[in-house]
Amino acid sequence: MKRRIPLLLALLAAAASAGDNRPIDTKAAFARLKTLVGEWQGTGEKKSERLSYELIAGGTSLIERETADNRPAMITVYHMDGNRLLLTHFCMAGNQPRMEAREFDPATGRLHFDFMDATNLPGKDSGHMHAATLRIADHDHLASTWVYYEGGKPKFTEDSEFTRVR
User: Fold this and answer.
1) Residue 55, domain member (yes or no)
2) What's the pTM value of the predicted model, to 2 decimals?
3) Is residue 16 part of a domain?
4) d(CA 89, CA 133)
5) N or C: which end of the chain has fewer CB within 10 A?
6) Using an 8 Å Cβ cutoff, are 86 and 101 in contact?
């Protein structure tokens, strides 16, 4: 009987975590992303960071252009693929990770993306952005967290906060 309890606990934990994979409302998440169109300025220590968002392709894709002093510009494109919400990040690391939206909370504006694959990535242990979380708190405030992986584990996290300039 003692051996069954750990197995039962493992099965219950697996069942509970399976509930985390429930489908999200990707259309609502993309609609929330579209509200970012405009210009944004970093706050605090990240004051030199700037974001601009533009809708292209008849409103089917959102381009994020990220610039900062003494750093190459980067582009992230958000778009729907059927019922999936994807992003492709054109990174200064020279690769292009693709991520899929896995969580969206319309009440808080939290939208989380996880790594799917990448182009120009020499191997799975090569450095790349692996996860991104946006928090669209309201019309004028945005926060982001990007997680960079190397060697199969997180190497650093990039946290930023922005306010709308226009």
Assistant:
1) yes
2) 0.86
3) no
4) 13
5) N
6) yes
Residue 20 lies in a domain: no
> Structurally, how many domains does the chain consist of?
1
Nearest CA-CA partner of 73 in 96, 91, 88, 56: 91
- C-beta of residue 78 within 8 angstroms of C-beta of residue 99: no
Question: Is residue 11 included in any domain, yes or no?
Answer: no
Q: For 122, which DSSP code?
A: S
* Contact status, residue 101 vs residue 85, Cβ threshold 8 Å: yes
Q: What is the pLDDT along the chain (166 residues), one digit of tens a residue?
A: 444 444 333 333 444 444 456 789 999 999 999 999 999 999 998 999 999 999 999 999 999 999 999 999 999 999 999 999 999 999 999 999 999 999 999 999 999 999 999 999 999 899 999 999 999 999 999 999 999 999 999 999 999 999 999 9
Full domain range(s) for residue 82: 25-164
